Amino acid sequence: MSLARPVSLFAAFGLFLAPLPGADAFGPPPKPLVQQSAEAKLLGEFARFAALSDGSVGIGVRDLQTGETQALNGDTLFPMASAYKIAVAGRIFALVDAGQARLDEQLALDPALASEGGIAWMFSRPGATLSIDRLLELMLQKSDNNATDVLVARAGGPQAITGFVNKLGVTGLRVDSDTAHLLYRAMGIHPLAGSFRQNADAARRADPQLVTRDIRDLPNMAFAAELQDTSTPAAMLDLIAAYESGRALSAASTQRLFTIMANCETGKKRIVGMLPPGTAVAHKTGSLNGTGNDVGVVRLPDGRRFAIAVFVMKDSKGHVARDRIIAEAARAAYDYFLYAPDRAHGLAHKT
């Protein structure tokens, strides 16, 4: 009878009774790996949402208590479109804080500043005025271009707005135009005189492709490549954080700014689109041919807040796809900041 089987059994029992390897042999503790996978999952989701566009997508989110920032293409420049109006508002409130303007101050509706839509009809009424506070509401809640350009003029022009932003230490965001001239550049026209309506109508008659581009919501690639009136997602997060922290404006101005933004009437399917009903959101949208943006602050159920900036450019899929990208990114960030394991020291920066 062979002795192989008893020897094999003895060897097996020997292995079973041998000392187990120390904990260090299994590598580092699991908690950092769990955290790394949570971050990786969020960034993976951002990349998946970005694939819904045939253009370029930038997403940045930041925990406003810890400073933790996660981003996809966070340092890429994107056209701000109407999202630039959040910088205009900051400059106006800074003038109020300095005693150089008042919210109840009445501003004349100069016909030379009228563009299309919104309250453009009011500019033809001699002596028509609106208060700065009402103009801020129209600009931030309805994205009214006419109200915006009255405020841009009162702010001292685009350079003064950029100067205000830079003084806060925010780099990567620049304002070069009022809305009328931003739209001129987006249309690819360079008028020397005449009203906005006259110039726009003449350009459309001369080039029917402008009408086609508007109807089909197609991008102007040359305009999207320009440096003027652009921001990175990271820079927009920096600006929002400066407002939210109280570093940029007085407490009263900060509260009024976010109260107005909390009643934004545009972009119902963007940041707020997939968040739980009743979630508090203060935001500002931006839309232009092939461009869809939304930036703002989201409040979590426990009172913590995070800033978010989502930019989509050079996109020909249409506003439905762009809105979904923004909504999906906002919901992924909401779940991450609410449910992800505690971040080591609350500081983790990814770009």
Structure description:
With 351 residues, the protein is α+β, with helices and mostly antiparallel strands. It has 13 helices and 9 strands. The model is unreliable at 1-17 and 344-351 (pLDDT under 50). Strands 2-1-9-8-7 form a 5-stranded antiparallel β-sheet, sandwiched between helices. It is 44% helix and 14% strand. It is globular. The chain has helices at 4-17, 30-50, 85-97, 132-141, 145-154, 158-167, 179-187, 196-206, 208-216, 221-224, 233-244, 251-261, 319-339, and strands at residues 56-63, 69-72, 78-79, 106-108, 129-131, 230-231, 281-288, 291-299, 305-313. The chain has a domain at 32-88 and 157-344: DD-peptidase/beta-lactamase superfamily (Beta-lactamase), CATH 3.40.710.10. The relative contact order is 0.18.
Any idea of the CATH class of one domain? Alpha Beta
Number of strands: 9
Which geometry do the CA atoms define?
globular
| Biggest pleated sheet | 5 strands, antiparallel
* First-residue to last-residue Cα separation: 70 Å
Give the uncertain stretches in residue-range form. Answer: 1-17, 344-351
Q: Summarize model confidence as the mean pLDDT.
A: 90
Reading the helices and strands in chain order gives HHEEEHEEHHHHHHHEHHEEEH
Fraction of residues in H or I helices: 40-55%
- The CATH topology assignment of one domain is Beta-lactamase
* CATH second-level architecture of one domain: 3-Layer(aba) Sandwich
Rg is: 26 Å
